[in-house]
């Protein structure tokens, strides 16, 4: 879904660039970045070719591409005082670097190109793709593992024999389903993630492997999430194989497609390279990307502390957009408008032009808290692959709901990327809440810190270890849009109405997936 999001962003770039009239040269030169940031910003009406609303990953990369690669006169407006949207990277005087939103991205050629063109290759950091990803599980037929942490297989089918998170009956059931010995899909309803996975791989694989994955990626309820919408690449495998509906046959053909895509459209050698299984970030966090885009665009093309109020279609086909600056309305006249705002904003602003946008109110986004804590290295118990000097070696761990641990999962930040913690410390980023724990929104920050610290102690720390150092917390009241049953119907209605308004485009993670990951 990460690559899909960036592909759709590129599609928006092409659509907006094609819609506006080409100009001989941009009125903004490189030297204009050092001019006064105020000229024309407070005029009664400013005219631009394209107005981009929102400065998250989609908005920042869209505005940057329009200006750099298509010479489109573009203005980006952001309601907050800094760019980045949900990308919030922090650093303190002690030397801790942490994220309060998404924590990493899966490298793709499209992201490599963006990193190269933004000039931030030197800041790129890639995690070791061989680091294990763990699931916490104890008892009920699982084999013994240090701290009850079971590493997910990376080499199939070889690692599967030693994967003792599943019982032998569970492995046999998953294997038979993977080769296609399954019941047909239902024809009278959308299939949930739980239903699809259980039909293909069995209840045990769902409960011990997929359920924690869904919690980690979506903070969602697998009984409510629609398989075709939320995990559509996996869903597609069922109909892609030559040897029936098995996921293995579909995956073989998908690998062939990927190889063909790489051959037909090879990446530029100048772009940063990566290996399979790696996750990426930047030395000072993910917000580096949005800040680099802002620096390139310059102050004349970026308005912060500027929420959008309304959009109107003019008789000549252009749009009059009202934004608020210091609570005062400012009008912007644009040939095209791209909204990359959250659903709650898009639902309100776009409804007059795209009636189906009102249905975005049906897209639920549950509360999730991101909590970062630090612990001294000697406080950790013996963990798989760890040593006394480096107790953490892995991406992190996910937590099946059946284990009764309230946290959704924890990223081992200081193991994943360099420079995240000072000498002698380890840094952990935990997500807690989600669609099956809405009550997290009612807790105080103190209560959330205590809960996460207790969960960390239960799984990772020695019994006599003191409480961790509190580094940062952010409670997202509306976090990740849930692709529930009926979501694709909403998107179809949105696309049909959007097509009737040339030059008006809607984008965001409710539509295109997640550019950056919450867990992995």
TrEMBL record:
KW Signal (keyword) present: yes
Pathway: Porphyrin-containing compound metabolism; protoporphyrin-IX biosynthesis; protoporphyrin-IX from protoporphyrinogen-IX: step 1/1
Gene3D superfamilies registered for this protein in UniProt: FAD/NAD(P)-binding domain (3.50.50.60), protoporphyrinogen ix oxidase, domain 3 (1.10.3110.10), Protoporphyrinogen oxidase, mitochondrial, domain 2 (3.90.660.20)
Occurrences of domain Amine oxidase (ranges): 61-512
Note describing how the cofactor binds: Binds 1 FAD per subunit.
One Pfam family from the record: Amino_oxidase
EC number: 1.3.3.4
Superkingdom classification of source: Eukaryota
Signal sequence annotation: 1-18
Top-rank EC class of the record's enzyme: oxidoreductase
GO CC terms, sorted: chloroplast; mitochondrial inner membrane
Cofactor(s) required, per the database record: FAD
Main location, first listed in the record: mitochondrion
Alphabetized InterPro entries for the sequence: Amino_oxidase, FAD/NAD-bd_sf, Protoporphyrinogen_oxidase, Zeta_carotene_desat/Oxidored
Family: Belongs to the protoporphyrinogen/coproporphyrinogen oxidase family. Protoporphyrinogen oxidase subfamily.
Protein function: Catalyzes the 6-electron oxidation of protoporphyrinogen-IX to form protoporphyrin-IX.
Entry-linked NCBIfam families: proto_IX_ox
The protein, known as: Protoporphyrinogen oxidase
Taxonomic source organism: Phaeodactylum tricornutum (strain CCAP 1055/1)
């Amino acid at each position: 879904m990460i690559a899909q999001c960036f592909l759709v962003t590129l599609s928006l770039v092409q659509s907006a660039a094609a819609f506006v009239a080409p100009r001989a040269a941009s009125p903004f030169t490189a030297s204009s970045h050092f001019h006064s940031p105020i000229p024309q910003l407070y005029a009664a009406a400013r005219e631009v070719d394209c107005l981009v609303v929102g400065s998250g990953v989609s908005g920042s990369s869209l505005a940057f591409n329009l200006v750099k690669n298509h010479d489109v006169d573009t203005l980006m407006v952001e309601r907050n005082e800094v760019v980045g949207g949900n990308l919030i990277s922090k650093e303190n005087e002690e030397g801790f670097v942490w994220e309060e939103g998404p924590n990493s991205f899966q490298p793709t050629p499209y992201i490599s190109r963006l990193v190269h063109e933004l000039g931030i290759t030197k800041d790129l950091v890639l995690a070791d793709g061989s680091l294990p990803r763990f699931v916490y599980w104890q008892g009920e037929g699982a084999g013994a593992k240090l701290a009850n942490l079971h590493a997910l297989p990376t080499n199939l089918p070889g690692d599967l024999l030693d994967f003792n998170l599943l019982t032998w009956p569970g492995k046999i059931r998953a294997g038979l389903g993977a080769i296609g010995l399954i019941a047909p899909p239902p024809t009278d309803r959308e299939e949930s993630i739980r239903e699809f996975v259980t039909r293909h791989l069995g209840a045990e694989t769902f409960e011990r492997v997929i359920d924690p994955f869904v919690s980690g990626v979506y903070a969602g309820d697998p009984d409510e999430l629609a398989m075709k919408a939320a995990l559509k690449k996996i869903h597609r495998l069922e109909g892609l194989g030559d040897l029936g509906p098995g996921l293995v046959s579909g995956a073989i053909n998908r690998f062939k497609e990927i190889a063909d895509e790489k051959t037909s459209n090879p990446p530029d050698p100048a772009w940063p390279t990566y290996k399979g299984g790696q996750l990426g970030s930047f030395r000072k966090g993910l917000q580096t990307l949005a800040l680099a885009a802002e620096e390139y665009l310059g102050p004349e093309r970026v308005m912060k502390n500027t929420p959008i109020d309304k959009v109107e279609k003019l008789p000549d086909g252009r749009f009059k957009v009202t934004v608020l600056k210091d609570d005062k309305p400012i009008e912007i006249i644009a040939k095209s408008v791209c909204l990359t705002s959250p659903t709650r904003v898009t639902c309100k602003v776009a409804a007059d032009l795209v009636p189906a946008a009102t249905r975005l109110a049906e897209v639920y986004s549950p509360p999730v808290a991101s909590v970062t804590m630090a612990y001294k290295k000697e406080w950790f118990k013996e963990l798989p692959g760890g040593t006394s000097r480096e107790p953490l070696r892995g991406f992190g761990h996910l937590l099946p709901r059946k284990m009764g641990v309230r946290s959704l999962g924890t990223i081992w930040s200081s193991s994943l990327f360099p420079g995240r913690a000072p000498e002698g410390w380890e840094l952990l980023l935990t997500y807690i809440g989600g669609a099956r724990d809405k009550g997290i929104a009612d807790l105080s920050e103190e209560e959330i810190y205590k809960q996460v610290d207790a969960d960390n102690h239960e799984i990772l720390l020695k019994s006599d270890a003191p409480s961790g150092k509190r580094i940062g917390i952010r409670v997202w009241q509306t976090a990740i849009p849930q692709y529930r049953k009926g979501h694709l119907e909403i998107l179809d209605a949105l696309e049909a109405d959007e097509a009737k308004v040339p030059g008006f485009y809607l984008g965001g993670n409710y539509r295109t997936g997640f550019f950056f990951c919450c867990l992995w």
